[in-house]
């Protein structure tokens, strides 16, 4: 186990380095000059060049990348060009709201998606199956921004049940969480249905039924329990999906999280903030994948690392 963890940590460090290099190069190769964007249109060429020197943008790319890696090793994420504040402070201020939105969305996906998939499998070919899978197909097909606008139009503007945007109360969380959870909810329900259809045809399921066990016990203990590994895998993958989807969702609902923050940073060409945010997301996803890999052993003792 220890050797496996060390091996995975080594792979994680390599992945982080590749992500850091890719983000560093892509941001700096993008058209536009951040120094020009940060100054008013009336700024002279001398003022723009002075700002470039102060920000270190006049140095060769290898030198800039070397300083970037040095600061990263020292856990110094730099200072935001746009906000003029430490990057770590800005991310720490906005991330709890995104974590709340993503956590609620993930819980909704599991609480609704798993029962929906089980019902669809048990009622295969019946009305419940068609309705459940219809919702799943719609959830995976509809763009996030369109779904968000439709929810606002119906539940905020027409019925006045929930606020259109912002944060503060649990009502502000309902529509953004529903919008963000739609795709993962649909994915989980379709996965559970497909897996349960295979499992319910196994010999041990027929044996459990022959012993006189209740249908609910057969489905949950003997059926769904053997589906935990693919479900856990999808949950781990969903963390990255939810973080990516939060950018659009937070923009639609003006939710003050890291998604809305990073859109502002991209518009302002805020190199330190964009780099730090991307690395932070990569770090979260890598840690979640490591936890998922370790959970496999406890969910199924037949698995050996």
Largest sheet composition: none
State the CATH topology of the largest domain. Answer: MetI-like fold
What global shape is seen? flat
Summed over residues and divided by their number, the pLDDT gives a mean of: 80
**Secondary structure tally: strands:** 0
Query: Any idea of the CATH class of the largest domain?
Result: Mainly Alpha
Rounded to the nearest angstrom, the radius of gyration is 24 Å
Number of distinct helices: 13
Which structural class fits the helix and strand makeup?
A: mainly alpha
Report strand %. Answer: under 5%
Unreliable parts: none
Helix content: over 70%
H/E element order: HHHHHHHHHHHHH
Distance between the termini: 7 Å
CATH superfamily of the largest domain: MetI-like
Can you describe this structure?
- The structure is a single chain.
- By secondary structure, the protein is mainly α.
- The chain folds into 2 domains: 45 residues, no CATH class; 212 residues, MetI-like (MetI-like fold, Orthogonal Bundle).
- Helices cover 77% and strands 0% of the residues.
- It has 13 helices and no strands.
- The radius of gyration is 24 Å and the shape is flat.
- The N and C termini lie close together (7 Å).
Summed up:
With 305 residues, the protein is mainly α. It has 13 helices and no strands.
Write the layout of secondary structure elements.
Layout: H1 2-29, H2 34-38, H3 45-55, H4 61-73, H5 87-122, H6 127-141, H7 144-158, H8 170-199, H9 203-210, H10 215-223, H11 228-253, H12 258-267, H13 271-299
């Amino acid at each position: 186990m220890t050797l496996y963890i060390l091996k995975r940590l080594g792979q994680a460090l390599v992945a982080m380095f590749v992500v850091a290099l890719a983000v560093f190069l892509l941001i700096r190769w993008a058209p536009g000059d951040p120094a020009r964007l940060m100054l008013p249109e009336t700024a002279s060429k001398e003022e723009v060049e002075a700002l470039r020197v102060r920000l270190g943008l006049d140095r060769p790319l290898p030198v800039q990348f070397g300083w970037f890696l040095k600061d990263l090793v020292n856990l110094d994420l730099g200072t935001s060009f746009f906000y003029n504040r430490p990057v770590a402070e800005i991310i720490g201020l906005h991330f709890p709201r995104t974590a709340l939105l993503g956590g609620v969305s993930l819980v909704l996906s599991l609480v609704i998606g798993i029962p929906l998939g089980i019902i669809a499998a048990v009622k295969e070919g019946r009305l419940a199956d068609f309705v459940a899978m219809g919702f799943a197909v719609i959830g995976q097909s509809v763009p996030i921004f369109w779904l968000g606008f439709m929810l606002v139009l119906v539940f905020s503007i027409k019925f006045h049940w929930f606020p259109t945007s912002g944060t503060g109360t649990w009502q502000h969380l309902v529509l953004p969480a529903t919008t963000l959870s739609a795709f993962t909810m649909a994915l989980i329900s379709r996965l559970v249905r497909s897996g349960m259809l295979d499992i319910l045809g196994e010999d041990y399921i027929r044996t459990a039924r022959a012993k006189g066990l209740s249908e609910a016990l057969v489905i949950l203990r003997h059926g769904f329990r053997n589906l935990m590994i693919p479900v856990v895998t999808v949950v781990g993958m969903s963390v990255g999906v939810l973080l990516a989807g939060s950018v659009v969702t937070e923009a639609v609902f003006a939710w003050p999280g890291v998604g809305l923050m990073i859109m502002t940073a991209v518009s302002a060409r805020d190199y330190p903030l964009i780099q730090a945010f991307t690395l932070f997301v990569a770090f979260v996803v890598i840690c979640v994948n490591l936890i998922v890999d370790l959970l496999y052993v406890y969910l199924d003792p037949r698995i050996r690392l």
